[in-house]
Design goal:
The complex is a heterodimer of chains A (about 400) and B (about 350).
Chain A (H helix, E strand, L loop, with lengths): L1 H16 L9 E8 L6 H18 L2 E2 L2 E9 L4 H13 L5 E4 L3 H14 L3 E3 L14 E3 L4 H14 L4 E7 L2 H16 L3 E8 L7 H9 L4 E5 L5 H10 L8 E5 L19 E4 L8 H13 L7 H20 L5 H8 L3 E4 L2 E5 L6 E13 L2 E13 L2 H6 L1
Parallel strand pairs in A: 1-3, 1-4, 4-5, 5-6, 7-8, 7-9, 9-10, 10-11
Antiparallel strand pairs in A: 2-3, 11-14, 12-13, 13-14, 14-15
Chain B lengths: L2 H15 L3 H16 L4 H23 L8 H16 L6 H24 L3 H21 L1 H4 L24 H22 L2 H11 L1 H6 L4 H27 L9 H14 L5 H20 L4 H15 L1 H4 L4 H20 L1
Helix pairs in contact in B: 2-8, 3-8, 3-11, 3-12, 3-13, 4-5, 4-6, 4-11, 5-6, 5-11, 8-11, 12-13, 13-14
The chains are: A alpha/beta (about 400), B mainly alpha (about 350).
């Protein structure tokens, strides 16, 4: 259905855009590499759907060039991501590499982006260091520390004194742990225990027990989008909610994509993040409506806006270069771009090529019968705190 | 053994070692692909190391009858060994590092072969699976060495023989991988067509009888298991060296399971099964995931069920006249050789 309408849109755009019959329009290919199967399918589906939606809304032609998405499935396996990226550059001659569902996947491709001089648009992966690995990396998603320091600030203000941290044992998890700890202890908070859970096939139960034994005011959790459901389930099974321990975290925990399945137990969880489906802006209302219409049964989450804004970044950069596809010129054009996204105002930091955005404090509530992250406080124009601290 | 029997045995072995026209054609095609398909060297590289990896499984499964669900253990060890050697600049020459990675995997194969010998098929499945899981968890836990779940970052592979840089287009990588696979195939072919290879097949058919006629069954199984482990390690090292990256996925159960599929597609016990299986499996996977990035595993599954149900013989039936012709040629050449 979607493909059909997309084809129609493409056809009309192609017809309208043709200056004269027989004059072939030049195509600019965008290689979109995402985990479309495997454990991180949700991320891939969200981003692919949002990228397609953007093209549907804005037409497939920009600056006289026809944009073509080439979607590849890397199953979340870094060696495959790298091979696909190489093939896209070498055989498909893509001018942009985009997607990258997880940090290791983005890191594996960074040296290639440098060598091939092709902009690498990171639409999901959230470790701070990614943008430093290649001058061609530009990020439209988020960095984990952005949310981590904001929730730490909030915890300090809300009289939380003692916290146990629980993170997935991989680069973004380490980022989430470190940033939270630094900000929280600097303001006088106490970290009772730092727990790291394996990324693959995690069993949170023993860790949650240790967290409960430490009797903290709050348990701070970072897990990749999707694993939040397991944490929640085991948190409730052990009755931690009744022992007065508050559950806080970055918004990955209460991912809007899977939140409806959590049930009432999720009510009241406080998280900090860049986007909520319930974000109250006209732009977002239109976005959610269009997204849900094109993808029945799905609601857009924070991953989707990374894909949507990533496409916007590509379109705007091409407009600025007048359709020129030189990698260095494109990256230069992307630096400093600022626009209104469904998540609120965002910009690309010209120094770091990383995203600058608002981080919202949200609480899980029931809105019109559905569970939602409802925003109640805003921290404006947050830069990546890790890179900001380095200067 | 009487002189006549010795002569018969020698003739039998010589007959088995003779190059079939199809074999020559197969390798000529492989060599031609380096020149004719420059745009596809990346996937061809994957096919080449997967073929070597499948060949390694064929040595133990097809010849010696040892089933394994954990062959990725050796693959992964080789991959990490090559990665670490390059990352810490311990061994800068890729070829030497490849050899060392293979030796490391062979050593692991030797040590674990004693566990594998101790049981029948089901036990072996479990033991091999366990060894692979163990290694995977070790690599996961020792993140200071392996990078843990983030993978081994920062591997730079020095130019091959100090001259040929591993380029972005994968040209060097492909020629290198293909050459290594070919050389190791020759070695495997030589070994499996010797009396050693024949004795392995005898053990597979009837271990008790092989033991009774005086074959050192355990020693030979250990030898072939060690050899296969070394091969798998080299395949893993090739992966690391051609991608300058490795991650925990090299140890994954899926990798071992996929490998069995590759061998099932191609057929076990005649050395080419793994190679043909690798070509078919990768091309299928690649073309299907291009057509439908979201649902390709379904189609792969369907095709595999179809292949197993229909049977490979019926699928390749159309080649029967060709094979008969090649066989006639072969016999004629054999007869000529005997006369001369």
């Amino acid at each position: 259905m979607l493909r059909k309408s997309l084809l129609m849109a493409l056809a009309t755009a192609a017809l309208a855009g043709l200056p004269a019959p027989g004059l072939a329009q030049e195509t600019v290919k965008v290689g979109l590499i995402l985990p479309m199967t495997g454990p991180f399918t949700s991320t891939g589906k969200q981003i692919a759907a949002a990228a397609r939606l953007y093209m549907q809304e804005h037409g497939a032609t920009v600056a006289g060039k026809k944009i073509e998405l080439v979607l590849k499935d890397d199953t979340g396996n870094a060696e495959l991501t790298k091979r696909l990226a190489q093939e896209l550059v070498v055989s498909e001659k893509v001018r942009f590499l985009a997607g990258f569902g997880l940090t290791p996947l983005a890191l594996a491709v960074a040296p290639l982006a440098t060598e091939a001089k092709v902009p690498q648009i990171v639409m999901a992966a959230g470790t701070s260091i990614i943008t430093e690995r290649s001058p061609f990396v530009v990020r439209t998603s988020f960095t984990v520390p952005q949310s981590a320091v904001v929730i730490a600030d909030w915890a300090v203000k809300s009289n939380v004194k003692k916290v146990v941290t629980l993170v997935s044992d991989y680069a973004p998890g380490h980022d989430a742990e470190k940033s939270f700890k630094e900000r929280f202890t600097a303001a006088g908070g106490q970290i009772a225990a730092e727990l790291r859970v394996p990324l693959q096939n995690p069993d949170f139960a023993p860790f949650l027990q240790r967290a409960a034994d430490a009797k903290p005011d709050a348990l701070y959790v970072f897990v990749p989008s999707g694993a939040g459901a397991i944490v929640m389930k085991q948190f409730l099974e052990r009755g931690l909610d009744k022992s007065g321990i508050r559950l806080i975290g970055t918004g990955d925990l209460t991912d809007d994509d899977i939140l409806p399945g959590f049930g009432d137990a999720a009510l009241g969880i406080i998280t900090a993040h860049l986007y909520a489906t319930a974000h109250p802006s006209p732009k977002n209302k239109a976005y959610v409506a269009a997204f849900s219409k094109a993808n029945p049964g799905m609601r857009p989450n924070f991953m989707s806006v990374g894909g949507y804004d990533g496409m916007h970044l590509i379109y705007e950069a091409l407009k600025k270069t007048g359709g020129k596809t030189d990698g260095e010129a494109l990256v230069a054009a992307m630096k400093g771009l600022a626009w209104e996204s469904p998540r609120g105002p965002i910009a690309i930091d010209p120094q770091t090529r990383d995203i600058v955005q608002n981080i919202y404090i949200r609480k899980v509530e029931r809105v019109n019968g559905e569970l939602h992250n409802v925003e109640f406080a805003t921290f404006e124009a947050v830069k990546d705190p890790v890179k900001a601290a380095k200067k | 053994m009487s002189p006549q029997a010795q002569a018969d045995a020698a003739q039998l072995l010589a007959g088995r070692a003779r190059w079939h026209p199809f074999e020559v054609l197969f390798w000529l095609a492989a060599a031609a692909s380096t020149v004719l398909l420059p745009g596809h060297h990346l996937i061809l590289t994957e096919i080449a190391w997967l073929a070597l990896f499948a060949l390694s499984l064929d040595l133990i499964l097809g010849y010696a009858g040892i089933v394994s669900l954990g062959h990725a253990a050796f693959f992964g060890l080789g991959a990490y060994a090559a990665g670490l050697l390059a990352k810490h600049e311990l061994v800068n020459e890729p070829l030497l590092a490849l050899l060392l990675a293979g030796l490391a995997a062979a050593l692991l194969g030797f040590v674990t072969s004693f566990l594998v010998l101790r049981g029948a098929d089901l036990t072996r499945l479990m033991v091999t699976l366990g060894v692979a899981l163990l290694l995977r968890e070790l690599a996961n836990k020792h993140a200071w060495l392996t990078g843990g779940a983030d993978g081994l970052q920062g591997v730079t592979v020095e130019p091959l023989l100090g001259r040929f840089r591993f380029d972005m287009f994968g040209h060097t990588g492909y020629v290198y991988t293909l050459a290594v696979t070919f050389v190791l195939f020759l070695v495997a072919r030589r070994i499996m067509n010797s009396s050693f290879g024949l004795s392995l097949q005898a053990m597979k058919e009837n271990p008790a009888r092989a033991e009774a006629v005086g074959m050192p069954v355990s020693r030979r199984l250990i030898a072939v298991y060690t050899l296969a482990a070394g091969y798998a390690g080299i395949a893993g090292a090739l992966l690391t060296q051609t991608t300058a990256f490795t991650s925990l996925d090299v140890f994954s159960f899926e990798r071992s399971a996929d490998l069995l599929l590759v061998l099932i597609i191609g057929g076990a016990g005649y050395l080419y099964g793994g190679l043909i299986g690798a070509v078919v499996f990768k091309l299928l996977q690649d073309s299907l995931s291009t057509i439908t990035p979201q649902y390709w595993p379904f189609w792969i599954g369907l095709l595999l069920v179809a292949i197993v149900l229909v049977g490979r013989e019926r699928i390749t039936a159309w080649t029967a006249p060709l094979r008969a012709f090649a066989g006639r040629l072969d016999r004629r050449r054999g007869a000529a050789a005997t006369k001369a």
